[in-house]
Structure formats: structure tokens, C-alpha cells
Amino acid sequence: MGKPWKIVLAGEGGQGVQSVAGILADAANDQGREALYIPNFGVEQRGGVSVAYLQIGDEPVGAPKFQTADIIIALSDRAVTRTTRYTGPDTVFVYDSGIENLKDEDLPTGVKKILAIPALDAAKRELHPRVFNVIIMGAVIKATGVVPEEKAKEALEKKLGYKFEQKPELRDMNFKAIERGAELVAEAL
Q1: Of 62, 69, 80, 178, which residue is 20 to 30 A from 118 by alpha carbon distance?
Q2: Range of the domain at 174
């Protein structure tokens, strides 16, 4: 795989970006790969911008901080604003197309690609709003290939298995959410 993937996930507190980063890191570790995940929470648990910095590679990650991300996923207008400083000419910038109050001039310039995906809309219409972040995880996996989809599902199973045992339909919904996120990125590309 070469150099580690540098990933920034950002959203409002409560949107689940930290959960997604943790599950991706677990999936990478379960694969025998190196993963470093650093959470950065907004001032309030809910209502502040939450940013997750994640690096995944085959060699030990040398430093926890990085200047430029390979991929950024921004889930709110404030998250877009907060993450543009991590862009560069090779960055793929993904944002939710349903973000209100977002203007074109808020989006970064000089990046490799900008993808708008309707993750929140897909969650609300097709599955459940609570799996919005899992759709985002599927989008990250499809856009980067950083971990196989099956490994992400296994890591999700480890994290939420107790809930899946109580309500097996939650497993199906979460696995469909991963697949739907991958489809949304494929359609955007």
C-alpha cells in the first residue's frame, strides 16, 4: 500500500465521526496493519465540531499530526470550514450534499477532486438517520480502499455485536449502510 492514508473526518458532535474513525482503525489493526487515530472534540459534546484524524498504513506511523490529508469527509458547514486547512493538490474532499448554509466559496480549491454525496438523505429515506455515520464509513472505504469492506463489517460486528444480538435487523441495516456509502461514492466518481 505504500505511504499511510491520512484521513480527516469532521462533523458536528453527535454525528458519529469518532465512532467511524475508531471502527476503521480497529479494522486496519485486525488486518495486521498500522493505524493511528486521534480524536479532537468541539467545546461541547453535542454542538461543537468534532474532528477525527486517522492514519492507516503498512509501516508504523511516524507522527500523529499531519499537514495534508489524502481524503477529508466533512459533514456540516462548520466541518467544511474547519477542514479546508488540511487540503492539498492530492486531497479528495467529500462532503454531504445536503449541508445547509454551504456556499460554493466555502469549498476548498486546488484539490484533486470534490465529491458531494447525499449520505444524510440516503440514511433518512432508505435506512435510518442513525446509520448516517456508517454510510460515511462505506464512503471512506470505497474512496480509499484503506480496508476491505468485510474487515469493516467485522470491526462493526465487534463494536456493536451485543446490539446486533438483541436486534438482528440492526446488523442488516448497518451492513447495508456500509454498502450504500460505497455506492454513493461510486456514483459520485
Answers
A1: 69
A2: 5-188
45-59 confidence digits (pLDDT tens) = 556 799 999 999 999
What's the pLDDT at 124? 95
For the domain that residue 9 is a member of, what is the CATH number?
Answer: 3.40.920.10
Give me the residues of the chain with pLDDT under 70, please.
1-2, 42-47
Predicted local confidence at residue 45, as pLDDT: 53
Is 132:147 a contact under the CB 8 Å cutoff? no
Coarse DSSP helix, strand, coil percentages of the chain, rounded to the nearest 5 percent: 50, 20, 30
Q: How many domains does the chain have?
A: 1
**Radius of gyration of the chain measured on its C-alpha atoms:** 15
- How many angstroms separate the CA atoms of 17 and 34, rounded? 20
* Side chain identity at residue 25, one-letter code: A
